[in-house]
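User: C-alpha cells in, sequence out, please.
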C-alpha cells in the first residue's frame, strides 16, 4: 500500500494499468488497493464536475464545470485520485 500511496502523492498522472506495471502487479490488485484506500479515507476520487468549485464560477451548468475545465475538457483522462492530507 505504501508504494501505491507514494506514486499517488507525486502528482503525476497514471492509468491503473501504468500503476500496475510500476508496482509489478495486476490491474485487479490495484483496483482492490484503491478501493481499500478510498474506504479508509486515505485517498479520494477527484471529481471533474461542478461540485469542484461549488457551482460558484460562471461556467457551471450543473453537470460539468466549463469555467473550471480546460477548453477541451478532460477527455480520455480516466479516473484520478488524490491523497488526503491532514489539515493543521
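Assistant: Sequence out:
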Amino acid at each position: 500500500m505504501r508504494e501505491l500511496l507514494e506514486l499517488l502523492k507525486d502528482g503525476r498522472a497514471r492509468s491503473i494499468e501504468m500503476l500496475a506495471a510500476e508496482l509489478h502487479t495486476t490491474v485487479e490488485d490495484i483496483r482492490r488497493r484503491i478501493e481499500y484506500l478510498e474506504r479508509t479515507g486515505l485517498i479520494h476520487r477527484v471529481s471533474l464536475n461542478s461540485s469542484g468549485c461549488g457551482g460558484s464560477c460562471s461556467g457551471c451548468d450543473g453537470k460539468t464545470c466549463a469555467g473550471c475545465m480546460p477548453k477541451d475538457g478532460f477527455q480520455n483522462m480516466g479516473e484520478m485520485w488524490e491523497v488526503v492530507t491532514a489539515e493543521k
